[in-house]
Design a protein that fits this description.
Number of helices: 6
Shape: elongated
Order of helices and strands: HHHHHH
Number of strands: 0
Distance between the termini: 54 Å
Structural class: mainly alpha
Oligomer: single chain
Mean pLDDT: 81
Length: 117
């Protein structure tokens, strides 16, 4: 049929990458559990959770800006830094060709960071 457009689906490698990065990024949610264990009253929770919320919201904002042009240098650097790699690597895997070694290096750094926290 002429004139119709189809919605493209990402390849199997990009899908596996996105699911893997989601699971690895989910370890950052444990920071909230650790912060919740530090307080004894619910009123104190907001002051403890605010820095963690800023740490988790910053990568989302950066990923939003990076989606405009994924080939810039600062995206190439930030994709290896753990809070940012969980959002940037799946985008890069879906749009660009990202080597397995690049994803493994970023995953190793994220895994190390998740175990340290």
């Amino acid at each position: 049929m002429k004139g119709t457009s189809s919605v493209g689906f990402p390849g199997i490698a990009a899908t596996i990458s996105a699911v893997s990065w989601f699971l690895l990024g989910f370890f950052f949610a444990f920071l909230y559990a650790a912060a919740g264990s530090l307080v004894s009253r619910p009123e104190e929770l907001q002051s403890v959770v605010t820095p963690i919320m800023l740490i988790t919201m910053l990568p989302a904002g950066v990923a939003f800006v990076a989606a405009q042009d994924l080939s810039v240098t600062w995206v190439g650097v930030l994709r290896y830094i753990p809070p940012f790699s969980c959002l940037l690597m799946p985008m890069l895997a879906a749009v660009h060709e990202v080597g397995l070694w690049q994803q493994a290096a970023a995953a190793a750094l994220s895994w190390r960071q998740a175990l340290a926290s």
